[in-house]
Amino acid sequence: LNTNGCIVVVAKCPIPSKSKTRLIPLLGEKGAADLAKAMLCDVLTNLATTSELDNVHKILYFAPSSGEKIMSGILQELGFESKWTTLPMLDGNNLLSSDLGHKLTHALIQGRIAISNGPVMFLGMDSPELPLDEIESAIHDRPNEALLCPADDGGYGMLSVPSHVDANKVFLPLSAGKRWSTSLTALAQIKALTDEDVLVRLGRIMFDMDEPKDIAALCQRLESNQMPGDFVTEDCLRRSSSGNSIPRTGNCGFTRIELEKLGQLKKQSI
């Protein structure tokens, strides 16, 4: 199969009391895990059903490594077993540990092995409002540049890594500087790439669902139909005005239904 690029979704198995623990006071242990699963389902579905990404290899990189049955079960429920490759995370199950750089480097190397050309793109599971136009542009239009979509907490929700960058120079500098999960994570990642003479473009803002306030803000956007496509960069606006790309956000159907079940979002009237 001639694949053009690779997408790696970094995910933690949605297990009660283990998933989205900061949301447990709001949603309860089961509710937090159910919402985590719903957001993951939206991410997997949007990427699997976007025709422009059909020839892009897709990896679900998960922790803990014992969660193969859980993740394979989710893919089976969605009917996407043939569209995703599951890959257990290297060396343990803590996504916040200092060796996150080694884990992501492992995924980057495995992603490059699986494809014939193109960049490897990293996405998380807890930002269901995917910038689909940015993803397509990074893979198909400008594969030799890095694209980083910053998160509103100082991290980032998406990173596209060009094929010519030394795999050991992308994530490991952040581990050395202890820059994971800080307000400077995105800046540290940009520095690591520019230190290797990689051109880094900034995509639009993405929103992680980590705290109760994040859920409230997401519900407000869903209720008003205001999605992150409104928060675009100058580059995105230029591409839109030239007809090359229109800001387009992925569907949040699973997340919306779960938020309705949990009483956080009003049910849509038919």
Describe the structure.
The chain is α/β, with parallel strands linked by helices and 270 residues long. Helices cover 40% and strands 16% of the residues. The chain has helices at residues 24-49, 68-78, 100-114, 132-141, 172-176, 185-194, 212-224, 234-241, 253-261, and strands at residues 4-12, 57-63, 85-88, 117-124, 146-150, 156-161, 200-202. The chain has a seven-stranded mixed beta sheet with strand order 3-2-1-4-6-5-7, with helices on both faces. Helix 1 runs antiparallel to helix 9 (253-261). The radius of gyration is 18 Å and the shape is globular. The model is unreliable at 229-243 (pLDDT under 50).
| Number of E strands | 7
Largest sheet: 7 strands, mixed
Order of helices and strands: EHEHEHEHEEHHEHHH
Q: Into which percentage range does the β-strand content fall?
A: 15-25%
User: Unreliable stretches, pLDDT < 50, 5 or more residues?
Assistant: 229-243
Name the quaternary structure. single chain
Biggest sheet strand line-up: 3-2-1-4-6-5-7
- Which whole number gives the mean pLDDT? 89
What would the principal axes of the Cα set say about the shape?
A: globular
Question: How far is it from the N-terminal to the C-terminal residue, by CA?
Answer: 43 Å
Helix content: 25-40%
Rg from C-alpha positions?
A: 18 Å
Classify the secondary structure makeup into a structural class. alpha/beta
Count of helical stretches:
9
Structure in a nutshell:
This protein is α/β, with parallel strands linked by helices. 40% of the residues lie in helices and 16% in strands. The chain has a seven-stranded mixed beta sheet, sandwiched between helices.
